[in-house]
Design goal:
6 strands; 402 residues; 3-stranded antiparallel sheet; 57% helix; single chain; globular; mainly alpha
């Protein structure tokens, strides 16, 4: 969807006259912007889309409610993140700027307490949790998300305050979870070191200068609206379950091939290409077979994912001469030339991980750790909401026999 529409296109999309369109603008229902170099104005496609959805809701409320679960009208109120004009914002702050200046802990303070400088309550983590030795015996060879799912129930069973869903308690548990997942991803001892520092120190192929790259990836992954894992986490929180449970639920959704699986498909594309000479051949072959090119394009960022653009820029600056970055750049050029699509955040993170020679599954580990901050934020909102999320189904089966 283009970000702006002409007056004729906007009116045609809404099924109204130009006079009615202008009335919508004057009432604040549709935003318009001047078209550079002309006296014409263009109309924000997102506003046109939302207004069209509201009109359809009045005609068929039942159908609209069903479609709200599939990229339809907003069904949940949230103050955490929003996409405007092709850019992502956390509580009104541009995520690209946050990723350049903030740690994941600071972004957690922003999403959880509304202030980058807020103090999140912590508990001592200097001593290894009692379950740590058992955990390390259980999970050798497991992918990161699965190892997280083994660990979290062990932690929950030893936290008697887990059912206290007051904000301070949820924040305390949330920060503990994020810190321990970061340590688990690299087999390190849980500590109160910066999360990016724990990861960088635990992955032996990295240098201290690489910490900023890992920090950026974590911040970019923290939230992206009501996606499947965040919605699942909110549902679990609405039922009164613990923060451990809502993170487990988010991880389960993230494992899906249509969600976190995007990272694995992007990595497979790089493996399939092999080297920069094979990049265009692989892209052409996929297009010829009618297959999508993973890691490119994003339905919420039609003009290009700014998170992917930032990561590719940083990787080029820090590791531009490495074989994997040369290959990734060749793929970016081939896809852009053949389809016009640009790399999304998953392609950027996978390129980063390969450039730093991180172990298999590192991209998913970064996604799971970063997104846990967002899941906790959604849980905090839902606990305060205090209502059970329970959409009604429209029964379409055999009618009851009397």
């Amino acid at each position: 969807m283009d970000e702006d529409l002409s007056a004729d296109s906007a009116a045609r999309e809404l099924g109204v006259t130009l006079a009615t369109l202008y009335a919508y603008v004057s009432r604040g229902l549709v935003r318009s912007r001047p078209e550079p170099g002309t006296r014409r104005r263009r109309y924000v496609a997102e506003d046109i889309w939302l207004l069209k959805q509201r009109k359809e809701q009045r005609r068929d409320p039942g159908r609209t409610a069903e479609e709200a679960l599939h990229q339809g009208l907003p069904a949940i109120e949230s103050r955490l993140s929003v996409i405007r004009d092709g850019r992502l914002y956390y509580r009104g702050k541009d995520v690209v700027s946050l990723a350049a200046t903030c740690t994941l802990e600071q972004v957690a303070a922003l999403l959880w307490a509304g202030d980058l400088a807020a103090t999140i309550p912590e508990e001592p983590l200097a001593a290894t949790p009692p379950e740590w030795r058992s955990f390390l015996k259980l999970v050798p060879g497991l992918p990161p998300l699965e190892s997280f799912q083994v660990l979290l129930p062990l932690l929950a069973a030893r936290d008697p305050g887990a059912y206290d869903v007051q904000p301070g308690s949820v924040q305390r548990i949330g920060l503990k979870i994020v810190r321990i997942l970061a340590a688990a991803a690299v087999g390190a001892r849980p500590s109160r070191l910066e999360i990016a520092e724990v990861l960088q120190g635990g992955w032996p192929t990295t240098a201290p200068d690489d910490r900023a790259l890992l920090r950026t990836a974590l911040v970019l992954y923290a939230d992206n609206g009501i996606n499947p894992s965040s919605f699942t986490a909110r549902c679990v929180a609405s039922a009164g379950s613990t923060p451990y449970a809502l993170v487990l639920a988010g991880l389960a959704a993230l494992q899906g091939t249509k969600h976190g699986g995007a990272c694995e498909r992007a990595e497979a594309l790089l493996e399939e290409a092999g080297d920069s000479a094979g990049a265009r051949r692989v892209v052409e072959a996929r297009l010829r077979r009618g297959e999508p090119v993973p890691g490119f394009g994003h339905p919420l960022y039609p003009a290009g994912d700014p998170r992917g653009a930032l990561l590719m820029q940083l990787v080029m600056e820090h590791r531009g001469r490495t074989r994997d970055v040369v290959l990734a750049t060749a793929l970016v050029h081939a896809v852009r030339d053949l389809t016009g699509q640009l790399p999304n955040v998953d392609f950027g993170v996978v390129t980063l991980c390969r450039a730093l020679r991180l172990p298999p599954g590192a991209a998913l580990a970064l996604l799971g750790i970063g997104r846990t901050v967002g899941w906790i934020a959604h849980g905090l909102e839902q606990y305060q909401e205090g209502r059970l999320i329970r959409p009604r189904a429209r029964y379409a089966g055999e009618q009851p026999q009397t």
